[in-house]
Amino acid sequence: MIDLHTHILPGLDDGARDLEESLAMARLAVEGGVRAVAATPHLFRGTEDILDSRIVNKKHMELEKALKDSGIFLDIYLGAEVHIAHNLIELIRRHRKQLVLNGGSYMFVEFPSEHLYRDIRQLFFDVMTEGITPVIAHPERNAVLARHPEMLAEFIGTGVYCQVNSGSLLGVYGSVSRDAAWTFLENRCVHFLASDCHGTQSLPPNLDRAAVMVRKKFGDETARALVEDNPRAALESRSLPFVPDPVIQEEKKRSLKIRIPSFLKR
Ligand SMILES: [Fe+2]
Q: How remote is the CA of residue 251 from the centroid of ligand 1, in Å?
């Protein structure tokens, strides 16, 4: 498996505190059947700003060396978890290589937990115009999208992709995120499953446990696409092999339609 969303680089953001914890996370991932991960630190989020590529590259090299010295076979690719921002296009133009996944054409975007960015449709369009495909990181953890799965389906209809956290399926963020994550899967709105692991305790690498649950409910082909085929394609900047048409149950659509916040309508 390939875990496309992790905070495994040591001492960089709110993920692994030090190299020791990075190695412990790597061991857990490998034990769970993961062969490669993308390190996707928060590069800017409010006052955090670590857009200096030398810092990220140094941490990457440190971890790769420590993995080799420890005999842990785990490939580390670089990416980022990019918090949605008014000046996102400017940031992309200045720091593109650091923001996208493995220097390619996919980029994780993250929303605040309680609301969506007002001009999100235009922003997605502008990002795609830059030749980058946005991948919404854990939409089940956003209060608006969790309540309105049809909005996620609409975004996906415009060419945006979606990554769900394995911990959400397991219920570690609570029942609202858990139910939303399973609903997104049922609606065929999920393209990647990743751990978003931050350490060895509260948010550990747990992709294997969630992948087993997805396999049981949706079959081997879907599970493999979400943790292997699609992540590999994204790392190689290829088109995703698994992009099902979103399906929203009519009943759900009718009952939710009237509750879309007016400022999000056009
Ligand atoms: Fe994350």
A: 33
